[in-house]
Task: structure prediction
Amino acid sequence: MKDIIQSRIASGLSVLLGIWLILTPLVISMSGAGLVSIIVTGGVLTVSGLVQLFWFNLLPSSLNILASIWLFISAFIFTMSSSASWNMVIAAIFTFILAFWDSIETNEVSRQRHHHLHA
Result:
């Protein structure tokens, strides 16, 4: 369990970031497709973060990388206030960093476990 602390931290932070995205419309006025996008993306981050906490696999990190790319793109394709756009861009950057950080450890631990099984 000690070897996956980085993944646990990244997953926990992804859950918190997902919850923030879901709650963002309560703080920053949003409507239309931007509103739907941020809530759905927040839900994806929350669920994949929770899944990664209990199922150590590369899939949740990969999904979060895709979600970060979508979040970044959606900040520019939907009509919304500049504060909503900046919130999405900053969240996208943090999401990408967390997912990448998690995937590095996930790959390394999986490689080590695979090596020990065949040694």
About this structure: The radius of gyration is 16 Å. The CA atoms of residues 50 and 93 lie 20 Å apart.
